[in-house]
Amino acid sequence: MRTITPNHPTKAGDINLSRSTRCIALTAWLVLVAAAFFAARAEADLPKVVASKDGTPISYEVYGQGEPALVFVHGWSCDARYWREQIPHFVKNHRVVLLDLAGHGHSGTSRAKYTMQAFGEDVRAVTEAAAGGKAILIGHSMGGLAVAEAALLMPDKVIGIIGVDTLEDLEYSTTAEEIAQMIAPLKSDFQTGSRQFIAEMIAAGSNPLIRDWIIADVAAAPPNVALSAMNELLTEYSTGALPKLFDRLHIPVVTVNADLWPINYEANRRHIPGFEAIVLQGTDHFLMLNTPARFNDALAKAISTVLTQAAQK
């Protein structure tokens, strides 16, 4: 039998009121917690802008926490959206940073020339603004050169580089005449030339919706930006600047590549001691979009390799 003391009279209505009050208080608390959570998430997901060295505004996004931060850099005529399949996978353990290089996506387009060195400054500006502590730079295609340039600028922050379908042969050489021939179709009709150029890099059996989107998206790039960036990219090979760039780096470099083009391990290791490549058979240049599960597993392995090699230095 329950005993009721005179100082604390209790009636059925009192008990119901107490329970209702507790429910209201709990509900209010949950609403506040949820509001704080979604506000924090919205703030984290909101794109940000930082000025590159020359003042060009560079758009970037930050997700999650955890070191090292992973800074993802897109390729030629692409943007941060090309890493959409990597965010949910890697945000579990890392701060994930995405950016649009100058002339791409939502970043500024005022440069006269789009050089690899200037792209490196874009990556540096974002990494220093968003990465927190140590970082691994991940660059797709042309982005592989951009992250190498950025790593030179941040020797105390960048612990390694991961290239994505890039850096197959650092000693590959070409001539100014060959560059002119490669760029000619883009100059004469950029939309048609770029569609043909990109279509050859996408596997025939890939998702047709993704394939069509990539081709249309690249063809919609500003021609002046695309032509300048392509010319600067190819000039790195014709002048022999690329191997010299990697000779100055003293950090781990790993690549995750499709099997479209052979990798010259001997040449690469002359400039990158410890160079490793993970090759995914039956994939294409946009493997992070077309085969995301396989790519994410391979990228996780590449990150582990970078961390192991960095710890041994």
Question: Can you walk through the features of this model?
Answer:
- The protein has an eight-stranded mixed beta sheet with strand order 1-2-4-3-5-6-7-8, with helices on both faces.
- The chain is globular, with a radius of gyration of 25 Å.
- The N terminus is likely disordered.
- By secondary structure, it is of the alpha/beta class.
- The relative contact order is 0.12.
- The termini are far apart.
Provide a concise account of the structure shown:
With 313 residues, the chain is α/β, with parallel strands linked by helices. The chain contains 12 helices and 8 strands.
Fraction of residues in β-strands: 5-15%
Structural class: alpha/beta
What's the order of the H and E elements?
HEEEHEHEHEHHHHHEHEHH
Poorly predicted regions are 1-19, 21-43
Mean pLDDT: 89
Q: Whole-number radius of gyration?
A: 25 Å
What does the largest sheet look like?
8 strands, mixed
Give the helix tally.
12
Q: Gap between N and C termini, in Å?
A: 74 Å
Helix content: 40-55%
Strand order of the largest sheet: 1-2-4-3-5-6-7-8
DSSP E strands, number: 8
What gross morphology would you assign? globular
Label this structure with key terms.
eight-stranded mixed beta sheet; alpha/beta; 14% strand; disordered N terminus; single chain; 313 residues
